[in-house]
Amino acid sequence: MGVLDFLKGKKEAEEIDRIVNKLKHKDEIIKIVNKAISLRNLNRHVEAIALLKQVIHEYPPALSILGNTYLRIGEVDKAENIFKEMTERSLPLEYRHLIIEACCNMGSLYYGHKKDKLKAIQYYEKALTLIDPKSVADIKTYNVLMSGAYMGLCNIYALENDIDKAKKNALLCIKLNPDVILANRIYGIIIANNLLTMPQIEIFKKTDLIIDLKQAKESLENVLSADETDIDALYAMCVVAHTIHILNVMGCIPRNNDIERELDKYSKMLEDFSHKSDDAKEKFVYYDKYNVSLGIICMQLKGYKVTMQE
To answer: Reduced to 3 states, what is the DSSP secondary structure of residue 71?
Structure first.
């Protein structure tokens, strides 16, 4: 072995040692962070904060956790300062997604704690435009965080009764992350409410309605698989499924042989709940009226002379 080969080998060994030591150090940091999270979960926030402060300069996720810890104990201004700092940081590739998370945290903070709707929307929208997906290391994490920004906007618009924007952002959230139950719930209920409030003859004229109906049905299935006692979602599902069934019968959409069986299942569930709660009872009555009135229009369109009976 020549001198150059020896020096090269020594340099490679030193590089390997450096990498190993760096990984060991990162391992120790992660242990500290995990301990802090455990303490926070036990409501030992002061101890958790002290540990997190030890590693925030070396491990960016610790800063995000610190901000959320402050938020949990009502230290809103301290949390805001941390999240704002993160939105302005230049982070390495593997941590760049934390900038989106910080913007979403700022959106949640401004809407939930500072009651500033416009500022909250600005931060959620900033999260959506801040980073090119090609510039992050983990596209799955990126999509989850982006869906969180859409969910934040969806929630604000739903609470502010801006239905069109709530629907739009719910759908964008679901496309990125179909497992977001709240987005699925909001979308499904919006579509059901639209069906209940539009002139029913329009249901047979809107050629693009089936796209909304299919997505609403899928969304509400996700919600009910997580909680089948969600009466609002169950009521919405009955309305959506019944509408699909009627359009099916009328030949307005491609034949779906499963929809009648599924409709029977959900309407039976709603009927069962109607014997246990006044809310479910009221919704079952509303659903039954919708069922009858849509059936009558269906018959009239087929040429039968039918009128609605009180």
So the answer is: helix
> In Å, what is the CA distance from 54 to each residue of 27, 35, 38?
14, 12, 16
Residue that wins the pLDDT comparison between 73 and 141: 73
The string of DSSP codes covering 111-128 is: HHTS--HHHHHHHHHHHH
Tokens 């018959």 locate to 299
Does 174 map to a domain?
A: no
Q: Is residue 115 part of a domain?
A: no
Boundaries of domain holding 288: 181-310
Q: Residue 94 falls within a domain, yes or no? A: no
- What pLDDT, on a 0 to 100 scale, did the predictor assign at position 221? 96
Which parts of the chain are beta strand (E)? none
Task: Find out whether 164 and 118 touch, Cβ atoms under 8 Å.
Answer: no
* pLDDT at 6 (0 to 100): 44
Question: CA–CA distance from 221 to each of 85, 196, 199, 226, 309 (Å)?
Answer: 40, 19, 26, 9, 33
CB 203 within 8 A of CB 247: yes
Kindly tell me if the per-residue pLDDT of 14 is higher than 70.
no
